[in-house]
Structure formats: structure tokens, C-alpha cells
Amino acid sequence: MRAFTIIAATLPLAAAKVSYDGFKAFSIDSHDNFDAVEASLAGLNYVSLSCQDDHDHLDVAIAPEDLAAFEALNLDAKVTFEDFGAELAAEGEFESYTATRKIKGRSAQDLPDLSYFNSYHELEDHHQYLEDLHAAFPDNSEIYTAGESLEGRPIKGIHLWGRDGPGKHEAIIWHGTVHAREWIVAPTVEYMAYKVIDGYKKRACSSVRTLDNYGFYIMPIVNPDGFVFTYTENRLWRKNRQVRTGASCIGTDINRNWPYKWDVPGGSSTNPCSETYRGLAPGDTPEMQVLTNHTLGLSRTTGIKFFVDWHAFSQLIMLPYGYSCTEVAANNDYQMKLAAGVNEAIKSVNGLNFVFGPTCPTIYQTSGVSMDWAYDVANAELSWGFELRPANQAQGGFVLPPSQILPSGEENWAGMKWLFANF
Predict the structure, then answer these.
(1) Exposed / middle / buried, residue 211 (Cβ in 10 Å: 0-12, 13-18, 19+)
(2) What positions does the domain Peptidase M14 occupy (predicted)?
(3) Is 215 left (phi over 0), alpha (psi -120 to 50) or beta?
(4) Using an 8 Å Cβ cutoff, are 162 and 208 in contact?
(5) Which fold has domain 99-230+278-422?
(6) Looking at domain 6-89, what is its CATH homologous superfamily?
(7) Hey, which residues are catalytic here?
(8) pTM of the predicted model, to two decimals?
(9) Taking the CB of residue 8, how many other CB atoms lie within 10 A of it?
(10) Which pLDDT tens digit goes with each residue over 312-352?
């Protein structure tokens, strides 16, 4: 989502791993004067923790050496974390997935053990998890590589189908981790893929009906370069790792680079140092070319029933459009009805409420984004963006302990299960 980050956006190509030890986190009330509040922070060493700074507040973590200068600004700010570095430490160390795979008595066609969701994982483990899902469901799945990232990493997915074989029914497309720091997304999406397969193998009516009528194309990590950078160099990195000639900052926001309504004023940034930098031209990132080619291929062959771009955080279900606060999708009433039902299903699990509606009037304007492109260009019947738990930065923001992975998966699977039964 929209943010302006000093540290995360301006790291040089070669840098020591960023430490946030001693950084103090605040939520600042802008009192409808967001630009002035943001300008007042100029010169301070801070990082934005905002997911949706829609001009009512700004979440930041201030470096210890600048705390006195920040407090002298006398902003309307409340402390959310005394030591943001300690919050990062609560995410724990990555566990090796290979250890959880070697379970005594486990056959190749058994689904992976749920202990995978007890920790976060490196990119290679996410890829191996998809391979293990495929091994457990060999006659109804395949692993595919949609293309490569800027740095040559594969953008991988798993394709699931039912009794009629591959490519026979409309597509359900899930993208995850386009914004690298949103760690909760990939395991949540992987858990839901697990549940689709598990239900079909057990002949659960809802899963059988869904998979026999739709083909799933699930890519949990579509920004692999950025994701790797979050655990090797800077936990709060958001964009891809593209270097632009003459630019002092690195990276393009892939979710402002979709080639549709790309340059609508107010929905993205032309500043390479901004977290919402849209690039020099629509669709000019390598990752975007991979995603558009793959999605358009499905649009032309099977058609697309449901497209989702999974994000965190804020607990939102976002519908078209982001580029305009007055235009809505032609089937907006239908999409709103379904989103309301999904929210109720999610709420029934852990009590969390997801706000839903057309993106621009619900949160703020965004341009060059996936859901608008998928709806108007790729002709997806339903085109949504999800923001997963938590609701705000004070509840953890981008940084959640691994104990929240399974609850996130369970509540969102409840929402998807309801949706599949009702669309």
C-alpha cells in the first residue's frame, strides 16, 4: 500500500543489513494536514511503517539519535512500539523446511505437515512447499514458472484442476507478496492452496465442486527479488530491485506498474525514492511483463472467474476501482454482495472484521494497480485486492509473530470457502 520510506527506499546497492534496534515507533495523527506532517520529518532518520496512510495518520519508526528532534516537533503522536527492533526479533528465526518434511512414515502423496506454518521461510522453502503440494496431488496439479524476475529468480506457481483435466474451466488466479515486506501473505496463500487440495483428496463436497469447475493458478511470491532482500538486507523493503539509470534510489512498486490507468494523477509517484514509484512507463518492470503475459494467456483461453492480489495489512477487501473515486465496476453490486459474505465468513473464525468496497472511496486513490487491470483488461468477473491481518500498525503491522500464520490462513480460507459456494 501507499507509503514514503526514507531508509527502505534509499539503500545503496551494496549495504550492511539494516538494523532497527532502538527505533521507536509512533502513530501520528495528521489532522487532515498530512503533507505538512510528512514535510516536518524531513532530515530525520526514520522509516515508514504505514500501510494505508490515507492522510489521516502516518506510522513511523524514528532512529534513536533523532528521537529528541522528533519529540521537539510536538506532533500528535502516540507510541506504538518502544523498540521496533525487538518487534522484528519476535518474528523468530527461519526454520528449515527440510526438517519438517522428513516425517517418519510419510509417503510422497501425503500432504506436507502443518508444522511448515510454525515459522517464516526463505524463498527456496516456499518453492519446495509448492513441489510437495504437487507431489501429494500429482494427477491434478503441476508446478509452473510464469517467468523470471529482474535478478533471474523464477516466479513460480501451482496449477490445480479437477476431474476434467487442466485448462478446461475458468481460472482463479491468486498473486501474493508483490510487496516484499508483507511476510504473512505467502504462507496464508499456501495454507489455502493446502486446503483446496486436502478437501479434494478427502472428497469434501465444497472442494470437489470448486476444483471440478475452476482451475487454480496460485503464485504465493511474485516479487522474489524483493522478498529475498527482506531477509538478507532490509526487513522493510517493499519494491522490486530494479536500478534506473540516473536514479539515486532503487526499486519500482510493481503494483503501480500495471499497464492500465498507470499515470492517473494522485494514484502513484514519479519519484524513484517513493515507495509507490510507478516506473518510467506502464508495465516496464520484468515482473510485470511476466504477470501480464501469464494472466492474459488465461484470459484468452479459459477466461478468468476470480483474480486476487493478496497483501497485508489493514483487513480490507478492495474492489475496482482504485484509479477513480467515482467509477465502479459494472457488476459492483454483485461484487459487494459477495465481499459482504466473505467478510462474515472471515469474522466467524477469529472475530476479525474486513472493511470492503471499491478501493478509491474506501481507502484512497491508487493507479496502475492489479485489480483495475485484471477487471477491465483481462476481463476477470471478480477482481479483488485483500489486505490481511492485522488492522493497524499498533497490532503489529507488517511484522507478525509466526503464531499468527495459521489463524490468518484459517480465517481467509473460511472466506474463500464461502465465496466458492456462492458465486
Answers:
(1) buried
(2) 119-423
(3) beta
(4) yes
(5) Aminopeptidase (3.40.630)
(6) Metallocarboxypeptidase-like (3.30.70.340)
(7) 387
(8) 0.93
(9) 26
(10) 999 999 999 999 999 999 999 999 999 999 999 999 999 99
